[in-house]
Each structure stands twice: as structure tokens, then as C-alpha cells.
User: Fold these one by one.
Assistant:
Number 1:
Amino acid sequence: MSVYSLYIFDRHTECIYTKRWTDRHALPAIRSTAGGALSNGSSSTANDIPAATRRAMKHSDDAKLIFGTIFSLRRMVRQLGGTDDQFLSYRTGEYKLHYFETPTQLKLIMLTDLHVGNMRTVLYQIWATLYVEYVVKSPLAPTEHASGVGVANELFEGGLERFIVSTM
Amino acid sequence: MSVTTQHTTPTELMVYRVVFALLIINKAGGLIYTRTFAPGLQKLDSNDYLILAGTFHGIHAISRSINPAPPVPPAPGNRRPPTTGIESMESSHFRLTCFQSPTGVKFLLFTSPEQPNTDVIVRRCYEVYGDFVMKNPFYSLEMPVRVEKFDRALGAYLARP
């Protein structure tokens, strides 16, 4: 039972917070060999970029892809189930994605392994007891967290870490 | 669900277990079969179903690339098993079970969230597809499925009398 990552998106579709609990060390190696197999031109340019930068790029791409997935699934669910239907979670053979949206269209997304049940209450707790208390009520945080300003403060980070450890 | 089982009779419980619809998407993302078995989902026109099939095809591919799980070392002598895309999706009104055949055909089964064994049902649909569509000499691959026997076999299996 493990949690892989947590993403928070604001109502302007911007990723304002990302937290990962596992780092994919094997991934850059796999990608570079795949690039080399496809074409020589792309592999030489891919090797110029340092591995750390590439990993960071991959992470920001991941956030965009996750938002795109959520956005499409949410629309699909509304189309099929009616306007009051809500998208809850999906599962693949390797991981599970949990989704929670607040009335202010703040979106909390958590990726876990397959051995966890419903994490909706956990996401609600993160929003109600951590995000609202430490980010929204913080006098230093701006009302709109453009590019994540004011979200990743010490209290929120620490509280989140403790909360995840206690739920696992 | 376990709480309500104590107070409802088996027939009342059966009311919640519904298969709403089945969609079949070919390996290029085109919709080749759609059929509704029970009311419960919103009525969509055929164009919307085509868009939905294409969208899901894309999401399915993306969900494979955002896999955060650490890669498991494959058994010696074997290749790493391919990552699967979305296998099941839940919303508050329905559950979508997706089964992808080794050739890339996707079976999308829309059921109520209470319906058990959806993966067995969707595999059975795949079997019926194999028996009545793929073995039909007049069916051309990747084209919309218009096979009467397939319709009848699916109806016998999934439609509630």
C-alpha cells in the first residue's frame, strides 16, 4: 500500500502543487534507449539534455497529461451520467487515480497503487484540514496561487507528510 | 452495499445490478459497435458516441504513459509486460469497465456501480465477438459491426427480459 503522488490544480487549470513519494530512477535510461532505437537524430539531442532536467521536464509533462485526462474523463462522465454525476476514480493494471473536486473547482488528484480503497475521504481531509487551514487562511498566501506561489509552505508540507504516513 | 443487503430481498437487489451499454472501439479509435441494454445513461446521438470513443481511445493511451509505479523486474527470460491502460473507471452514477484484446480492440462496458464481476461479463462479450463477428466470413475488419447473430447472442446474454 503506497501513495505515488499528489497533484493540486486550481480553477485556472494550473498545477499549483505537486508532491511525489517515489522517484523513477529507471525511467530516463529507458527513454534514452527508446529514442536511440527510433532515430539517431533525436537521440543525440536527447543526450545533450542532462538527466535531471529531463526528469523535471517529464514531471511537468506528467502534470499536464494528468490534467488532460481528468478534464476529458470529467466531461465524458457528465455527458453520460447527467450534470450531477461526478468522476471518482480510475484504475489501470499498475496504479489507481483518485479525484476530488471542491465547490471552488480546486482539483485534488492522488495516484496510488492498487491495494487502496476509496481515497475520496482522504482527499477531502487534505483539502479541509490542511489546504484550507494552512494555505487559504495563511495571511502571506495570495488569493490566486499563480504557478503555485504560497501553497508549498512549511506547515502544509509537514502536515501532508504526517497525514499520509498516518493513513498508510 | 452490505448494509442494504440485509433489508432488501434478492429481487429488489437485482434492480440495482444493470448493464447499461456496450461499446466496441477498434484499434484506430473508431467506434464499431454501440448498443444500449437498459435505460440509465443519458441519450446520446451517434455522433456523440463517435467523439466519446475517440476521446476514450486517447485517454487510454495517456493513462499508460503517466504510470507512476516503479517498474517490476520481469521474470527471467521474459520481456517486461506491457503497461495496461484504464481498466475500470468509476463515477457516482455508473462504472465503466474496459477490456483491451491483444489486437487492440477495446470493449467498453457501462454498468451500474453495484454490478459485480464486470470483468467476467466484458470477457464474455469478447468471446461472443470472437464467435459471431470474427468468424463471420462477410465481416470486413475494422468496419462497423452489423452481424445479426452477434446482436441476438449479446441480447440473450445481457438484456434483461
Number 2:
Amino acid sequence: MSPNTWVIEMPSQKSCSHPYPRRISPYRTPSLNRDAFTRDSPAAATSGPSTRSHNHPVFEDIRTILSVLKASGLMPIYEQVSNYEVGPPTKTNEFYSFFVRGVVHALTIFNVYSLFTPISAQLFYSYRETDNVNQWIELLLCILTYTLTVFVCARNTKSMLRIMNEILQLDEEVRKQFGANLNQNFGFSVKFLVGIAACQTYIIVLKIYAVDGVITPPSYILLAFYAVQNGLTATYIVFASALLRIVYIRFHFINQLLNGYTYGQQQKRKGGGGGGRRHRGNGQHHPTPNPAIMEHFPEDSLFIYRMHNKLLRIYKGINDCCNLILVSFLGYSFYTVTTNCYNLFVQITAKGMVSPNILQWCFAWLCLHVSLLALLSRSCGLTTREANATSQILSRVYASSREYQNIIDKFLTKSIKQEVQFTAYGFFAIDNSTLFKIFSAVTTYLVILIQFKQLEDSKVEDPEPDQT
Amino acid sequence: MFRPSGSGFRQKLVGFTLKGALYGSWILGIFPFTYDSWTRKLHRSKWLIAYGLVLTTVLVALVWTNDTETETPMRMEVFHRNPLAEQVNGIHDIQSLFTVAFILLRGYWKSGDIERIFNELLDLQHRHFRHYPLEDCCSFDRFVVYKGVSVAVEFISMVILELGMSPNFSQQLLVGVTSLCLMLLGVLLGASHFHLAVVFIYRYVWIINRDLLRLANELADGKEVSSDRVDYLLGLYHRLLNINTRLSDIYDYQMVLVMASFLIANVMGIYFFIIYTISLHKDWDYMILFVIPQAMIINMFDFCLSIAVCDLAERTGRQTSTILKLFNDIEKLDKKLDRSITEFALFCSHRRLKFRHCGLFYVNYEMGFRMAITSFLYLLFLIQFDFWNL
């Protein structure tokens, strides 16, 4: 049960999701399924017969990250049915993902075992007891997060495919209606992948250099798997951000379309670019072929409303898929940032025993996690803002006649106090403010930890008062 | 699809849980109503109120006179080591006693309102929702069963905790523990009345949502939909929201107290646990491994459940607005129908299905998360205050 589910538990979905034959739309596009709330809509509408063969793979923008996730069993290795549809994976591929997940769980059990037995003791070499405990907890949290990720991904295979299909279907409609191709360069995902890999390698090398004595094979396995787990969890976060970015582009597109109808834009067109206030509407794809006229507005607005509903549904779907993973990742990330800040503080304030190794280690972790947090909260914030901006833009639409006013009001009345949010299991909203909240929490806990340290020190220095 | 056999069992389980809650409440004297099956109405009974008052007084007196738990060696050890724990424990004891008394007295005091609300719910069920198929609402069944299980498990865990902490059994101890646990059961059942009422409201809202969705589907398929149906649903929705507001007004103090006592119990439990294991350097025996953790886990489960129910209802209320958005892109909408839907949308955006206790906070996951974080912070502060003793 996920908290943000849009799904209303419809009775016997199979029979209810298509109770009636599909409407034949009077205008250009075939109608979408309106059962936006039923649990499993059919994999993809068979409308829109794509006669062309698969000349380009779907989701090409994020294929690097997708291939990493597919190889690690986190994403299903789907089959491409057509340009705008993906199908479920073949038996062999499904078995491969299953096998990889099994190996991961086996390794996890082995690691937990070695964490709880003295096998891995040599990895915890620090000067003080608390540091070791912290690192130990960090490892355990990482294992937990990754295991949860694998479980959730395995459970959400179908809904992930459904989301992808919905995105593709939406793209197809946009292409049919406006001839626009909504692809964009997702260079950031590749950069992040490289960064994550480099960071993890660096951390492992640091760790290996820091351990004195010969490292036993179990410790090597533990370390390597730890790095892989960290890397894959981080990759998944990047993937979620990329998905959100995809949704953002779609939202942005319909907002641009609407923006073309706003008063300012109309004025500008009449006056030959006199306004110059809003440049967003004049993006690469020009919204309407004949800019000065509102005659397409009723038709376009219906399309836009439907797109908006679909996009919101996709947005919620992504949220439902990533809910638990995000919560555990944010918790893990918070813990890591806090302990590393604390370690840095201890290193800097300790007199005379600054170890460059630990400093580098802390900086590497901080960089990795802070950049991931920033990426995640930025993507969520952008998408949320764009989703909420639609009604703002719509309220500026220049509606000269009564008919248009009705169309606009129809949307606006239903959007009053209906802000969408990307939440972490309903616990808190993830947007730009999350970053701020996390850092204020880190500060609070840092202060508490430092206070504890001072108490501990004073306890060691003073003789114990009369205690039994 | 392959539900028939399973659903029968589930339905039976739900029915059994509801009946169990009803009879349990009657026996413990916290449900002072009699049901008249002819008029389908609940009536307040003075005799049941008197019975409840007498029973509770007897139980409190029994607990008071047979109070043996303070002498258990484990507690004495902890308290000797850590005087702060004793003080906090004292506060918690007083708070619990106050909670018990308050829940019962307020329940009797407001019984007239409660009667009206329950009668209205019965009326809604009989007049309007009887014709809808109800067996598909899985969350309803799940939450009812969870609640039943949680009350039962909480009772058992309390018995285990009390008996497990005292090494020597005596008749006095058994009497004291039994009456204490019965008192606790009364409180839990009293809280579960609110919980069950919320689940019922949730189910009705869910049915309204389903009907709205069906209307949207019909419209999309080009069928005619009369605006009366939307108006009818709006009327039902309005009544449900009214009931909800009144219900949370009646139960707000009780729920706040129960939540507070759960939170304090959890913080205290973990604190005791830390003192016992770390500062007293005890060996890991069955006490540490089983008795204390199970009590804490069950407490947390119950706390989460009480929040999850309210969150579920709130989410379902939000879904209504989202479903209404689906009416946006229907081209030729009848003027009258359009107006009805707009009215519904405006109503939804201005009045939400939300649970606000005493005007202090809304009950949902966000608040639950904050509460959990705050209790963790309090735990840290407690440990810091008493660091010298650790």
C-alpha cells in the first residue's frame, strides 16, 4: 500500500476498466483511455497503429543509465514493440533479472553475516569506538537501502513498464497533434554516472590504503559489494531524477502551448514583439501555426487538459514507484552526511592528529551525497513547479469571449488548492526546500553529537562521581 | 477474480472483528447504547452508563490496592541507577490514569452526540449505501482487521509485560494485572471506536469516488449523464464531511491523549531499554530479547495504524478532486451537469476530508513523521540529561 496512490481500488478491474467501447473522437487524435484511475490499464492502447518499424529505440535520451539499471536487475529488460510502446521482457531476460537479484540477495546475506562476525573487524580501524560504530551503521544502512531498492524494483516492474508506456503514448499524441518531438539531451545522467563511479572507486582505494595489514578476501568482497550497492542506489536516484526531468519537459511543453495564448503573448504578436516580457512562449516549437487567432484554443485546451491529467497520473505513478526507495535513500544520505560532517569536525578540531586519508574520505562522501540530494530535490522541485504553473498560466489567458472564459474556468475551478507534490511516502514533500530542511537537521544533529563528544571527554577527564 | 472463496473468509473476519469490538465494548461498559433493530437506531441507556462507571471505579480501585508492579526488582534497579527515569515514569503513570478517566467520562458526557452520529451513519448505510456493492473495498477490510488484531495483540503484550517483569506470582499480583489490563483494553476499545468510524467514512467516500469515476467513464463514452446523480453524490459527500467534522470534534481530546501516551510509552520503553542494557551491563536474557521489544513494536504498530487510517481517509478525499478533473476534457458537457460538477469541485476545494485534533494538528503521515522525529529527539535529550549515569 503506498500512500500517494491514485489508484482507486476499483472492483474487479479487468471487467471494469473497459466497460464501454472506446469513444471515437471527433477531432484529430484518438481518444485516450479515461480510466486514469483503474489499477492496470491495458499495457498500451492499440490505437495509433505505428506502421513504421522500430527505427529508433525508445528512451534514447537516458539509455546509458537504463542499460546500467537493466544489467543490475533493477529495471526489466523490456522488449520494444513499436516506436511508442514497450512490451514485457522475454522469459530469458526476466530470468536474467531474477538471477541477478538472487545473487544480490545472496551477497547481501553474506555481507550482513560478515558485518556481525569478527571477519570484517579489520575494516573498522579508527581511533575511537564511536567512529567505528558509525561506520558500521553506515554500512548496514547502505545494505538496507539497496536491498529495499531491489525489492521495490522487483515488485514495481509492471507499473514501471506502464509508466514508460504512458509516457510513450503521450509522446505519440503530441507528435500527431503538434508534430513536436519532445526529446532532450540528458547529458547530466551520464555525467553523474561517471562521477558516481569515480567517487566510489576513489573511496574504496582510500579505504584499502587505510587498512593496515593484509586484507582478507571476505573484506574485499564486502568492500567491493559496498561500493556496488552505493553506486547502484545512487544510479537509481539519478534515474528517478531523469524520469522526473522527462515529465518536466512534457509539462513545460503544454505550459508553453498555453503561454502562447496568454494576453502578453497576444499583445506582443499584435505589436510585433513590443512586450518582450515573456520569452518562453517563443521556444523552438511554435505552439500554434497561426499565432494571432484564438480559434484553436477550445480544441487545444481540451487536448492540454487531457495531457495534464495524464501527466499528473504519470507523475503520481513515478512517485508511487520510488516512494520507499526515496525515503530510505534520504535517511541513509542524511545519516552519511551527518556522520561525515562530524568526522570532519573531529578531524579539524583534534590537535595534531589530522589524517589526510580520513579528510579525503569524508570529502568524497560529502560531495557524492550532497550532489545527489541536490539533483533529486532540484528535479522534483522543477517538475512540481511546472505542474503547478499550468493553472497560473491559464489564468492569464486572454479570453475575450464568454465561451473561452467557460473553458478556462472549468480548469481553474478544479485546480483551486490542488497543489501537486512529490512526496516521500507522504512523510514530507521533496522539492528545493528539502535540501534546506536536510541541512538544518544535519546541523541540529551535529550539535547534539558534538555535545555528546564533549560530555564523553569530560567524563574521561573528571574522576567519576560517587557511583555504585 | 479468484476471490470468492477468499473474500468470504475476509468478510467473515471483518464481521467477527466488528462484532468482537461491539461486544467487548458492551462488556467493558464503554459503549452505553442499545440497538433497536426495529427502528434501526441506537438508544442511550442510563443503566449501561452506570454499569460502566461502577465497573471502571472497581477496576481502578483494584489496581490501586493491588499495585505490585512498583516493587519489581528490575524497575527498582533501573530507578536506583537513574532517578530521572523514575520521575518520567511517574509523570507517565499520572498521565495514563488521567487518560483513562478522561476518555470514559468524556465518552459518557458526549454520548448524546455520539448516538446521533452513529445513528446518522446507520441511516446513511441503510438508505443510500445499501445498494452499492461493498465487498470490494479492500482497504476497509484490511484496516478493520488490523485494528482488531492490534487491540488484541496490545492486550496480550501488556499481560506478558506485566507478568514477565515480576518474578514471583501471587494472587494479588494476578488481580492487579488483570484489572490493569482490562482498563487498558477499555481505553484501546474506546480509541478504536473513532478508528472504526473513520474507516466507515472512508468507505463511503470511496464509494462516492467510484461512482464519480463511473460517471466520467460514461461521459467519455458519449453517454448521457443526468446532473441529478452528481447532485445526489454531492449531497452524500456533504453529509459525510459534516459527520466527519462532528466526529473529530467529539473525539479530539481523547485521541490527543491516547497518542501522547503512546508516544511517551515508546520513548520511555526505549530509554529503559538503553539504561538496562548499556548502563547496567545486563546479559541478554529473555526479558531484553523478547518482552520489552515486543511491547515497543506493538505500541508503534498501533500508533502507525491510528495515523494511517486518518491518512487513508484524507487521501481518498483528495482523490475526489482529482477525479473531478477528469471531467475537464469532455467536449460537449451539458450546462446543468457542468454546473453541478463545478459546484462539487468548489465544495471539495474548500472543504476537505481532514482530521484535525483540537485545532492543534492534522493527522496524516506528515504529522506522524514529525512526531517520530520529535520523539527521537526527546530520547536523545533524555540520554544527554542523564549522561553521567550511563
